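Summary: Need help interpreting a holo structure output

Steps to reproduce:
1. Submit the protein chain below together with the SMILES for pyridoxal-5'-phosphate.
2. Request a joint structure prediction with the ligand placed.
3. Inspect the structure token block that comes back.

Expected: a single structure record containing both the chain and the bound molecule.
Actual: see attached output.

Input attached:
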Amino acid sequence: MQINKPIVDKLIMFEEQKNYSFHVPGHKHGLLSTLPWKESLTYDVTELTGLDDLHSPETIIAQAQQLLTQDNNTISSYFLVNGSTVGNLTMLYATCNAGDTIIVQRNCHKSIFNAISLIGLKPIYITPEWDEVTNTATSINITLLKEAHEAFSITAIVLTTPNYYGVLANELREVITYCHTNNIIVLIDEAHGAHFGATAAFPKSALAYGGDIVVQSAHKTLPAMTMGAFLHINSERINQKKVELYLGMLQSSSPSYPIMASLDDARHFKANYTDEDFLYFTKIKSKFIASLTAIKGILVITTDDPLKLLVRYEGVTGFELQTELEKQKIYAELADSYQVLLLLPMLKNAMTFQFEEIIVGVQLASEKLAHYLKSTPPTTNYHKAITQPKFSPIEMEEKPACYVNIYEGIGKVAAETLVPYPPGIPICLAGEVITKEMTKEIIMLLEVGAYFQGNHRLNEKLICVMKEA
Ligand SMILES: Cc1ncc(COP(=O)(O)O)c(C=O)c1O
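--- attached output ---
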């Protein structure tokens, strides 16, 4: 149980004083803004007297971060205003040096790949396990980790758990223990698990298994504003000063007070979430699942994370289901070839959500889907492997590249990373040799309407490869 909300309370007091603004931001408490929600800009202030400084916290921000540290039982926990993206960059900058070799899951977030390029790291990619129930890539297998460790001298490993769909890494405790025994620092991207450990009914955070640094997107599942995230230092292996140095370098020098206040609020929300709240949430969720599954054609799959539901409609892709749901104003978190992912609200006792109207919408969507041409969902071919790209990301920056027909790309070195997004798992990474399987997967995803992020020319069936000498 935590009582105070130091940043929230101070901002309310400051706003009530109706102070005169001769300072940034230029909207002057919303006065010059034409936004319909300009009233809320009165809380968008800056590092004024009494409002502390994220980069050198002493009062309200220090107190709120201290409460976060206590709630998570860490050495030191931080508010981030640039998302888990900046947390991931920071954890690698603070623990690795240029030229170090690190192990990463192939399905890690692009911020990890960006950190590898920026720092000049040498990545060893491990293909994650494939979960047949959710049809998603999950965690790395400890046998492959041991093989990779025997073949290369490794500084750190980055693990992503849970995955986007709420599936937890297998054998996390064993993997972390193995790494620590072998002097490998364990960095955990727990972007999708900021609510973990709220009560014993939720999965445990990787903090409980000894991850050295754990990064969480508070905005994804807790009531924080977009870009609000947490970084936790959880072991003496980590140089706290270095983490703070990189957070200071990589984050804005004008951190958003609305985001920081929402982090204070999200921290408070989680710290005070009770067993009774969870019981209430579970009752409402069960009723929602029962109503969904009563609709002809709908199949619901639950995962390790109580907040995640996968919904499928027999014979159609997740993209098609998403299209019909959106016509009913129902917006899912993501769609893939098989399903849509619903992210449920972490309701507390007596809170309500529009589940009844949503069921009516799903019913209408399902009536439309009944007329769709039916197809069998594609099978995904993931080959478990440890791969070292032919060229590291930093080496690739210097290589000349050109576009070739996608089929001619087989056997050539990819000069671009191709990531269907969501769920953000790269099929081919810049510096890797393009295989027949990768090409097949890209074609299949294009056919089912998947969206590939970035400046690619896949819609013209062209792929960017390294020019051969
Ligand atoms: C696994 C994972 N890590 C990190 C991020 C980045 O998080 P943020 O949006 O908070 O910067 C995402 C975003 O979707 C993600 O899925």
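--- end attachment ---

Reviewer comment: Residues 83-85, 88, 109, 111, 160, 164, 189, 191, 217, 229, 424 surround pyridoxal-5'-phosphate (CB under 6 Å). The longest strand covers residues 308-313.
Status: needs-info
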